[in-house]
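In response to reviewer comment 3 from the previous cycle, which asked for concrete evidence that the modeling workflow produces usable outputs, we include below a single protein chain processed end to end. The sequence was submitted unchanged, and the resulting structure tokens are shown without manual editing.
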Amino acid sequence: MAFPYMEAVVGFMIIVYVFETYLDLRQHAALKLPTLPKPLMGVISQEKFKKSRAYSLDKSHFHFVHEFVTILMDSAILYFGILPWFWKRSGDLLVHVGLNAENEILHTLAFLAGVMFWSQVTDLPFSLYSTFVIESRHGFNKQTIWLFFRDMIKGIVLAIVIGPPIVAAIIVIVQKGGPYLAIYLWAFMLVLSLVMMTLYPILIAPLFNKFTPLPDGELRVKIENLASSLKFPLKKLFVIDGSTRSNHSNAYMYGFFNNKRIVLYDTLIQQCKNDKEVVAVIAHELGHWKLNHTMYSFIAVQVCENTHGVLWVYMYFLWVYMYSIAVKADAFAKKLGYGSALRAGLVKLQEENLSAMNTDPWYSAYHYSHPPLVERLAAIDEPDKKAD
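The workflow returned the following structure tokens.
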């Protein structure tokens, strides 16, 4: 008897869904707690805690509905053979318009175009509700409906431009790869990752946001002096107009070798109390660079994804690693003299972004790239406590 591959795939999807829903339920229970964690009492205002709790619970309720609908649709699509049926229909469409359905590249592109269209249509109601109901209700959304659909159309156009060459290359590799197929695919995906990491912030991100040089002034001087003291090859320092879409804030860096760039969200500058808090956040990011965390993380993902290791071992390794490097980057900023400012900046960002104050440890370990605020503040304070 043939192995029931389809049933196995659907079964595995449901198992993952049940496991992640269990974690979501644990987190939902934590979010419902009516008081701040003890370490945050007197640090986070009660007003911000109430707003954060309401926002987090709203997102949690929405997440339950979204994930339930998604698993129902995905399971039904697989179980009832919708994908094979759609593969046949996409071939019929090619014949109808006078193209060769036997061409595997054309057939695959037609199939994926239909899948992308289906995904856009089915996810649109959830995206609209998340953006214009939940995010607007809690004061984050700044998008107009026109900007929302303009971004969506840009994304579709980018997929149409970038997708076909990548799909065609993968199909050719599969056709010609022979016994070295896995190696060729890995090499292609590695090169593709490096190319996209290079091109995305330079060519793609500016299609959605405006990047302007950080104006001359005290903040720019402080960031440049910090970068110079660490021998960070800073070439450009940008401010991004994140406030045109959301009040959430962020900062990041990108670039290879001696062509590094730092990007600050305008909301980050607005939300931090003073320049030193902004610089402290940058010091944390520079800590990731100085300690080679970005390179190690990239290598770790490549090794884990391409050694056919056990899934759970791979995930556990990344959890532990990501947690540890976040704490190390905070410690690095503290050693530079930004401990107090980083502490204040993290608290401010937690408040302004209405991030969850109470978190379940299993949920945060599975989903978060950085430890919760309570753990980060404890790690920042720990050396001071030992010194007393």
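The beta strands are 211-213, 234-240, 251-254, 260-265. We consider this sufficient to address the reviewer's concern, and the full set will be provided in the supplementary archive.
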